[in-house]
Every structure is written in C-alpha cells, then in structure tokens.
Design brief:
This protein has helices at residues 11-22, 28-35, 39-53, 56-95. By secondary structure, the chain is mostly helical. It has two domains: 9-54; 56-96.
Length: 96
C-alpha cells in the first residue's frame, strides 16, 4: 500500500471555494466535485472563515482598554497641569 500525499490548499483557494457556495449560489456537492475536494474540507473552511469574520469582539475590548488608558492619562495630565499652575503662581509671587 502506498501512502497518499496530503494536499495543501492556499487561503485564496479556500476563500474562493467558500465564496462559490455562500455568495455565488453553487451547491456544496457541485463545488466539491468541480474542485476535487472533500465535503468535510469545505465545511471546515466555511466554519473557519465564519469564525474569523466574527472576531471584531476583541477589538471592542481593545478599544475599551485603550479608552480607559487614555482617560487615566488625561486625568494624570490635568493633575500635573494644576500642580504646574500652582507652582508658577507660587514662584511669581515669591519673586515680587
């Protein structure tokens, strides 16, 4: 028995195959037959692409974390500005 060599597919090929089913209206069976791929591969590619397209949620978390960081930095800068105002007023009065 000879071993079959595992075929590898590019991301573009996978996206194109999924697009044929989801956007172009081809049936899964027809795409699999035409491209000579297993149905399980196509179904897995569909799930993977769907999962990767649903990943904006971490961006929301990143935005929230960035917002909190910027708000903290803003608070700190305002506090430093007030200190500098008081110091400037102190030294202006001291020089008189």
């Amino acid at each position: 028995m000879s071993k079959r060599k595992r075929r590898s597919y590019s991301q573009e090929f996978k996206a194109s195959a999924v697009d044929m089913v989801e956007n172009q209206g081809y049936r899964v069976e027809d795409v699999c037959r035409h491209l000579d791929i297993n149905r399980s591969n196509l179904n897995r590619w569909r799930r993977d692409l769907e999962a990767s397209s649903q990943s904006p949620a971490p961006q929301v978390d990143d935005k929230d974390a960035r917002l909190r960081k910027l708000e903290e930095e803003n608070r700190q800068l305002r506090e430093e500005r007030e200190i500098l105002k008081k110091a400037a007023a102190f030294f202006a009065n001291e020089s008189d």
